[in-house]
Each structure stands twice: as structure tokens, then as C-alpha cells.
Amino acid sequence: MSSHFALAKCFGKVQETFSRNGFLVLVFLIIVFSACSSGSKPDRVRVDFFEPKTPLFSIGNDSERVETGNYAYLLNFAVDEAENIYVADKENLKIDRFDKEGNFIRSFGGVSHESASYHRWFDVFTVDPGGNLMAYSGAAQKILIFSSASEEFRQFDLYISPKWYALKMKVEKSGGLLVLGHSYSLGYQLIRFDLETKKYAAIHTDNRRVRPSFQDIRPDFDMDAGGNIYITDSIEYLVYKYSPAGRLVDRFQKRVKKNKMEARDFNILTRVDRVEAIPNYRESWEKLEGVSGYFPAMFGISIDNDSGRIYVWSSDQDPEKRFLVDVYDLNFSYKCTGGYYNIMGNNHAVIFKGKFYVPNIGSDDEKLKSEVGRFGVFQIPYRLDVFRISWPSSH
């Protein structure tokens, strides 16, 4: 039954009754109209992502892994095609590699390694199909490559424009390097860098949003098995699909109500059990005019090619302050919605081959969750949790 037909039936019943019961039915009219106009099908169907709800394993804060030690503010990690996991150790200037069961294999870099001279090279990195680690040093504007099979280390320039810096990288099966970056002159750009010719070409530009001074609110991107590139809009609930050649071939858009930034959203956890406002946030907030004063309708995307599902992180939250994750098939036919903790504007979760990787930024502390805003996390992350995703057959 269509919503228009159902609404007509509602009006018919109310009109017939109204002539007999007068004012009391006017109240009934309002109630029925609200129920009918809302429709019988909810916008989102909630399904729990995890079964069981405890992680398969975790990396970090494990006394048995003496080679790695504890991690401080663990946010940066990657997963390669073989499900090996790479975690940035910021204190020791290295990246640790683990197998798919969480066993330590080796480290790249270190305080005595040549890479230590490149400032914060471990913030943005990815892994190519051969297991070689590729990282970006924003200060030097260079790509650093660590060999998977040896201690070989090399680097080369990646200069786009003054004060341009990379935010996320992924290697294509064809060997190209996709880099999402930002500069105040260009906005957010997704570029393809040719590792052979050392030349690049811009694929997508997103420059409508004014960047807050304290963090990026950026688009996100991922690829399907055919090499097509999907990139989110930094404002609307909108995904652009590009062919492997870099041509725009499709887009998916849904009209949603965006969440306007409020003063409480700038309250963040600065240390254990201490919530404070972002310093000078009002000055930055006042510059976010128009659409920039709203949270993005979506801020993350992951494509799990094994299951044929697309996961879209929205800025909507459930009562537990978990961000809602809408799940689609590869044709963007809606399946269901889950929810979990993430970082607004900077997707720090990976969904790959039926597993969900996320830093431990959630909490069961209701008081804390009532105080921390959308820009914050509920725990300073020190480990990476790995869950198994299990969906009911109907989804």
C-alpha cells in the first residue's frame, strides 16, 4: 500500500467520524494524520553488528607483547589484503605489523632508523598488495616506502601545493596511489599519484566546507573489487562513484536532516575523566558560516567486497552516543543500520573481510557520555579491537 493511498484511507475514516463526534474527533484527526504521514516503514532498521559482542582479539596494552609495549593515543592503523594489521607507535616512531590473529611480526622505522628524521611520518600510511608499507611525511612532503621483505627504505617527493598535507592513502591494484589531502587554497582533493612517473592528477575536489581550525571534517573514500572509487561529500549525504580511470560514473544521494553544531559538541575528553571545551572553539565556530556550521551528513565509508556491502557512517547518534552506520549493497539498496563509536569527521574504523577494526574509544560511563560532544571520544584509545561481523540472513 502506498503512503498516499494509506493517507487517503485515514482521511476518509476521520471525515466520516468527524461529522458525528465534533471536536473530539479533531484531536483524533491530528493523531491519525501524524501516524499516517510517518508511514509504517521506519527510516532505519537497527541490527547489531557484532556476534559475539566481545572482540576476537585486541592489539595494545598487552604485557605479553613485550616487543611492542603499550600504545599511546592509538588511532592510526591499516589492514592489508592478507589481513595483516599495521599499528602506529607514535612514542617509538615506528609502525608495528601483526598477523590476522594479532601476533606480532615486525616493526618498520624506530628512533634509530633513518625515517625518524621525517616528522610524524607514521600519521598517514597504507600498504600495497606486496606488503610494502607506504607512509607520508607532511613536513617534508615526501612518500616513504618500507620494504616488506627487507630493510630497504626509500623516499620521494609528493608536492601538490604550499601547505598541502595528506589525510588518507590507499594503493590501487593497478599500482596507483590514491591520496586524499587538503590545503586552504584547494580544499579537499583526492589525487592519483603515479609511482613510476612521479606525476599526479586530481580526481575529486571538495571545497565547499570551511575547515575548523582544530581539526579536519573531511570526505572519506574506499574502492570496490573492480577498482571503482567511492568518495563521500563533506556536507551532504552523498557518495560519488568514479571509474578506475577516474571518471565520474554515478552518485548516490539521500535527503536527510543535518545536525547543526552546538556549544556542547566542542566538549572533549582531554585526559582520563576530564572533559573540557576545545580551546578557543568559539572563535573557530563563528567562522563556520552556512553549511559549514553543520556536521556532515556522512563522514565515513567502508566497502567490504567479500560480503558485497557498503557501510556509511552518519553523524546521527543513538542514545548511547554511537554513530549510526547505514548498510547498503553495492547498488546502494538499503539493508539495515548498525552503530558504533567513531571520530566525527575522521573515520578511524575499517571494515574488511567480515571483520570490524576500531580503536577503543567507547565507554559505558553514562555521565561521561552526557558531557562529551560529537567532536570528542569517550576514552583515550590505547588498543585496537577486532570484531567479527555477523548479520542475520535477512540482511
Write a compact overview of the structure shown.
The chain is mainly beta. The chain is 12% helix and 35% strand.
Account of the 3D structure:
The chain has 395 residues and is mainly beta. The chain has three domains: 1-41; 46-71 and 208-395, no CATH class; 78-175, 6 Propeller (Neuraminidase). It is built from four helices and 26 strands. The chain has helices at 3-21, 23-38, 281-286, 366-371, and strands at residues 57-59, 77-79, 85-89, 94-98, 104-109, 124-127, 133-137, 142-146, 153-157, 165-171, 177-183, 187-193, 200-206, 221-223, 229-232, 238-242, 248-253, 267-271, 274-277, 298-304, 309-317, 323-329, 334-340, 350-352, 355-359, 384-388. The strands form seven sheets. A four-stranded antiparallel beta sheet has the order 1-26-25-24, with no helix packed on it. A four-stranded antiparallel beta sheet has the order 2-3-4-5, with no helix packed on it. The chain has a four-stranded antiparallel beta sheet with strand order 6-7-8-9, with no helix packed on it. A hairpin with a 6-residue loop joins strand 12 (187-193) and strand 13. The radius of gyration is 24 Å and the shape is globular. The protein starts with a helix and ends in a 7-residue tail after the last strand.
Q: Treating each run of at least 4 consecutive H or I residues as one helix, how many helices?
A: 4
Helix- and strand-based class?
mainly beta
Count structural domains: 3
Q: Strand percentage, roughly?
A: 35-45%
Measured on Cα atoms, how large is the radius of gyration?
Answer: 24 Å
| Average of per-residue pLDDT values | 86
Largest sheet: 4 strands, antiparallel
Q: Record the strand order, biggest sheet.
A: 1-26-25-24
Report helical residue fraction: 10-25%
Number of strands: 26
Shape: globular
Low-confidence stretches: 1-41
Task: State the order of secondary-structure elements, H for helix, E for strand.
Answer: HHEEEEEEEEEEEEEEEEEEEHEEEEEEHE
Separation of termini?
Answer: 23 Å
